Amino acid sequence: MEGRRTVGGLLTRAVRALTFHALLLVIVVVMVTPFYWMVITALKPTSEAISYPPTFLPNDLSLGSIVEVLTRVAFPRYTLNTVIFASVAVAGEVVFASLAAYAFARLNFPGRNAIFFAYLGTLMIPFYVTMIPAFLVVKWLGLVNTFGALILPRLASAFGTFLLRQYFLTIPREIEDAAAIDGCSRVGFLFRILLPLSTPALAALSLLLFMQNWNAFLWPLLVANKDEVKVLQLALSDFRNQNYVIINLVMAGTLLSVLPILAAFFVAQKKFIEGVVMSGLKG
Amino acid sequence: MFSPTREFVGLNNYLSVLASGEFWLSMNNTLYYAVGVVGLELTAALALALLLNRPLRGLSLYRTAFFAPVVTSTVAVSIVWLWLFDPQTGLFNYILSLLGLPESGWLTDPTMAMPAIILMSTWHQAGYYMVIYLAGLQAIPREFYDAAKVDGAGRWTLFRHITWPLLTPTTLFVLIIGMIGALQAFDAFYVMTQGGPLKATQTMVFYLYQVGFKFYEIGAASAMAYLLFVVIFTLTIIQWKVVGRLVDF
User: Fold this and answer.
1) Is the pLDDT of residue A246 over 70?
2) Which end of chain A, N or C, is less packed with Cβ atoms under 10 Å?
3) Mean pLDDT over all residues of chain B?
4) Is B187 close to A128, i.e. CB distance below 8 A?
């Protein structure tokens, strides 16, 4: 404390701050290196990409492998499939979760709490326990290799319901009473007042679910292997197995698959982190 | 699996699973992975959170860099790390050779494959636990530190007697969440090793997938799913009790 006003004290503090930032920058480099290596490998021509020793700064930059992935492989198709699956599933899940959450938060009906706890209890059951019966049901319904197989099992979510219920409970009941006096129905209240008031929770939840769907792998691997419904993660894994010797091509595909989600993250970081943290569940 | 007639076999599926060496091998591998990855992730996450828990220029930049891997899919991360781990032309062996250190077979070496995947997963997930630890750290009232500093407490004493005890609920939470996640890891093992080499990375859910969807032994796979569930559930309760007892309020 006493050294703070002297020149020496200021210098010590400056050196300390610099060392601290240098340490953090080293960690940043470690964290960023895999991304960097992916990007530069994707931009190297094949001969340079597979040469040893590797070059840290490419001698030759080319978009060739990216163009090749986009044209030769059905990459745009897989991306479209993923967008369809991820967004329809998120929309459905959010709508159903809102309806259920409203019922659990505001309506009085017999057995409400028991049903809510049973609902909550399903959160304790991990995916691998339900994956075999879920697969058999999907197969029995004849839905294998359709978007239905990907989307239907996602629609009812105890997690989303729980999260929205907690949020709805923080919104004063007086608002609903006032709306009712003005002749607003329950459904009208939910969609015109409650949901708009819950935008922060809805945004964080939607982003989190979108990310989980975008990155999902095991379930699509079980039920959606045809090109018409194949999602990006699955296509990427196949693509790597077929082309692993042409590493610049593999990295170009990987880069294209992570760009949308990383871009979304950079734009809406705070919401992303909020969503991931409140989930307490890894994708 | 799809035969029209089904026979009731009682507990036979459970008994044959429990008697199989491969089941226990997979269980072992899974525990090895889970303990290793959760231990490393939490240590790294706490260290990062402690570094960032101060007024800092460029804080959001650092947080972004540390968190970016979390939003990236395990499949993509695995493919990139397969390339980094490549024994012939990969970056890691190149760096080791520059430093004059012995190179490694990484994923092709039965003793190194699991540590390699643990390393990758730590890089992938540490940012997630860091954010949770940061929230925990920010909930600790400043007055505690001020009072202890007046009493002449050093930095380590502050951590040992204030930060760490008050973070126990956070640690319990991340420990349980981390274990639950790690015990059902699948994607990285499917993409990177397919359980190899020599089944050194054959984890429970990967084995379950093989038995159910490659060998079509749906009964055995279902039995395994429930046995795994019992194990994870028991572990969770034990952690809850043990760590819960350590919390002083």
Assistant:
1) yes
2) N
3) 88
4) no
Do the Cβ atoms of B91 and A33 come within 8 Å? yes
- Record the pTM: 0.90
CB burial of residue A84 (10 Å; 0-12, 13-18, 19+): middle
Which residues contact residue B104 at a Cβ distance below 8 angstroms, ignoring those fewer than 6 apart?
A: B87, B92, B93, B96, B112
Query: Which amino acid, one-letter code, is at B78?
Result: S
In chain B, which residues have their Cβ closer than 8 Å to the Cβ of A122?
none
Mean local confidence (pLDDT), B117-130: 96
Please tell me the distance from the alpha carbon of residue B118 to that of residue A18, in angstroms, as a whole number: 32
Cβ atoms of residues A186 and A99 within 8 Å: no
User: Does the beta-carbon distance from A126 to B187 stay under 8 Å?
Assistant: no
Whether B83 sits inside 8 A of A41 (CB atoms) is yes
Chain B, nearest residue to A247 by Cα:
B83
Contact between chains at B208 and A128 (C-beta distance less than 8 A): yes
What single-letter amino acid sits at A65? S
| Contact between B189 and B206 (Cβ < 8 Å) | yes
CA distance A74 to A137: 30
Q: What is the DSSP letter of A125?
A: S
Among candidates A24, A221, A254 on the partner chain, residue whose Cβ is nearest the Cβ of B76 = A254
CA B246 to chain A, closest CA, distance in angstroms equals: 22
Q: What's the pLDDT tens digit per position in B148-175?
A: 888 888 888 888 888 998 998 888 888 8
ω into A54 cis (within 30 of 0) = no
**Alpha-carbon dihedral sign for residues A42, A44, A46, A48:** negative
